[in-house]
Amino acid sequence: MAASQRITHVLIPLALLILCVLMVLFPTETWHAGVRGLSIWWDVLFPSLFPFLVLSELLLGFGIVHFLGTLLNPLMRPLFRVPGSGGFVFAVSCASGYPTGAKLTAQLWEQKLVTREEGERLVAFTTSSDPIFMIGAVSVGFFHNVAIAPILVTSHYGAAFLVGLLMRFHGNVSVKDKQSISDSPSASEKVHKNRLLRAIYAMHEARKADGRAFGELLRQAVSSSLRLIIIVGGLVVFFSVMLELLVQTGWLGGLYAITEQLLLYTGFPPALSHSLVGGLFEVTLGAKEAGGAGISIPLVYKAAAAAFVLSWGGLSVHAQIMSVLSNTPMRYGPFLFARAIHALIAPILVLVLWLPMMGGSEWPVLFQNGAKPELFLYTPDWTQILFSGIGVLGVVLLLLLILSLMSPFFLPRRMKK
């Protein structure tokens, strides 16, 4: 056993023992933090994740993912070096948020639709927040200003797109890449030259290969989705308690001081340190701290801090991704690198796009000469979250399909291996 592994095996139990002692010393704070984490899971994460996890498993079993993959392959392969089914993963991730992208990527790997490096590229740019959370919880609930929603959404998904373009250079073209299902001529390509007919044939073959009856497929989809959503909830509660204990013991003081010095050195308000440090651990807390950072801080800097937190995702999301990918050969390192790049690009996009989109004020240019949107309090509503997510899923898929149909006009027909 290597020395680093021996040290890890000692440090992890020691850290857990210290955490147990702190929970005994701060029982009230531990209880409140656990309830807060459970509330976040039940009010926001459960309704936004669970329906889409079940739906995505059903679509995968019925071959719809293979159908969309064949249609989207001419777009996704040259741009991101992932198969066309990655477009479906990206659309569902946009609608439901993390960790849906990692879950679907793991399922694609199990069906041998992606290689390890393709999966790592796919997870890197499909791990993103959902627009309902950014608009409802962050813009309205934390900032009490729905006007910043467009720039938060634009910077977040724009940075995800750029991360996807950067991660296409991850990994070499291996023998497995050359022999992958998505790259090699499939049976459908030999039978049908028309792309739509190939897609229908691929869906039919995938459904025959799956073979499960609808009742069995639905039961397994609900069962696996419940297991994942319970794991997500447990991790949210755990990190909420851990962060609260770190706050109560004052151990975050040093990290706050270091972050304040870095912000001063780069010319940003040091008061944003609480948002950035909180966001390192838990995305909801970091975004809430950004929204309540104080009226003396320009809104553009608070929005940039929120964009950083949303793109990094917090250690809670990182733990969720590691849990999902634990049964696959996909590594955590490329995902960590992609999160760091995403968290760097997103706030830069906020600063760059602020004047074009906001016109130097706290309101979008669209509303400056007309009625401004009303400010209101955000109350999570399951029906609104579900139908809004379905709308986002449909819009993203439709956009990807249109771009795929137009791809022969602006992308090479075949990518060189």
From TrEMBL:
Keywords, sorted A to Z: Membrane, Transmembrane, Transmembrane helix
InterPro entries for the chain: Gate_dom, Spore_IM_YlbJ
Claim: Transmembrane is one of the keywords in the record: yes
Transmembrane portions of the chain: 7-28, 48-72, 122-142, 148-169, 228-247, 295-315, 336-357, 385-411
Domain called Nucleoside transporter/FeoB GTPase Gate: residue spans: 45-117
Entry-linked Pfam families: Gate (PF07670)
UniProt entry tagged with the keyword Membrane: yes
NCBIfam families found in the cross-reference section: spore_ylbJ
Name used for this protein in its record: Sporulation integral membrane protein YlbJ
Organism: Paenibacillus taichungensis
